Every structure is written in structure tokens, then in C-alpha cells.
Amino acid sequence: MNTTRALLVAALVALTAPALGAKYYKWVDENGVTHYDTRPPQGASAEEVRTRQSASSDQPEALERLREQREAEARADQAARQRQARQDRAADQPERTGQEECEQYRRNLETLQNKPVVRVKNPDSGEMEVIDQERRARMLDRTRAAVAFCDGRQAP
């Protein structure tokens, strides 16, 4: 069985080897149609086409860009599903969801006021980043306003 398989693989390699090394030619006929063939046309000029099967020099970078794009799309899809789940939950349990959000705002305010270094997740890269003082000030203003709204809404 192994001998048969080895012979079959050898035969396939032998049959495909000439095709990999074959020269191909490209030319445009009088009607403007582009042709490719293993033989150049008689009476017309043709350009030899490179057919070697090797990775292009920019292939690793293209693959990396594709991987990054797919990861970004996956993060965006996940974020959209999470937003939809929060919206669905808020519609089903508005009072409980509001209380949980207010508790989170209070925790965020405590962190912004008391921690010397605050990191947030970058939605594009998914990595944690340290926020600068300007952004921290904006976040503090918004969070204080949210907590004030929560306190006013929950006041007796």
C-alpha cells in the first residue's frame, strides 16, 4: 500500500514538474484580445510571462494586514453583540440595568479620582492604553455628570 502511494506521488510530481518550469507567452491580437500560451504566436511579438511559484516580497505584510483586519472585524462584531445584549437586557429589566450602570459610574469615578494611572482598552487594537490628563479630565466630567444624574434619579 505504501509503495503504491509513493509511486502515485512520484508520478504526480513528474507530471506537474514540466508545467511549473514551462514558459508562457502573452500577446495582444489585432482585435485587442490578450492571449496566453506556452508557444509564442508566429509573426507577432510576444512577451514572456514569469510563472515561478514563489511568494511575492510583500506577501508577509499583506497577510499581516489581512490578519489585523480580521481581528478588528471580530472585535467589532463582538462589541456589536455586547451592545445588542445590553440593549435587550435594558429593555427587559430597565430598573435593574439602570442601577447597575449607576454603580459602574460610581466605581469609574472612584478610579478616575484615586488612581494615579488609568488604563482603558483601545477599541481598535484591543490593547490597554494609559490615558493622558486631558482625556482623564473629560472622562471625569462625563462620569461626574452621570453620577449626578443617577443620584437625582434615585433621590427620595
Key structural traits:
two-stranded antiparallel ribbon, 156 residues
CA-based gyration radius: 32 Å
Structural class: mainly alpha
Q: How would a crystallographer describe the biggest sheet?
A: 3 strands, antiparallel
Q: How much of the sequence is in beta strands?
A: 5-15%
Q: Can you count the helices?
A: 4
| Outline type | elongated
How many β-strands, per DSSP? 5
SSE ordering: HEEEHHEEH
Helix content: 55-70%
Strand adjacency order, main sheet: 2-1-3
**Which spans of ≥5 residues are poorly predicted at pLDDT below 50?**
none
Average pLDDT, all residues:
82
Distance between the termini: 85 Å
Describe what this molecule looks like in 3D:
By secondary structure, this protein is mainly α. Among the domains are: 61-92; 94-156, no CATH class. 62% of the residues lie in helices and 12% in strands. A 3-stranded antiparallel β-sheet has the order 2-1-3, with no helix packed on it. A two-stranded antiparallel sheet has the order 4-5. Helix 2 crosses helix 3 and helix 3 (94-114) runs antiparallel to helix 4 (133-153). The longest helix is centred in the middle third of the chain and has 34 residues, at 59-92. The mean pLDDT is 82.
Short description:
The chain is mainly α and 156 residues long.
List the helices and strands and how they pair.
Elements: H1 2-21, E1 24-28, E2 34-37, E3 47-49, H2 59-92, H3 94-114, E4 119-121, E5 128-130, H4 133-153
Antiparallel strand pairs: 1-2, 1-3, 4-5
Helix pairs in contact: 2-3, 3-4
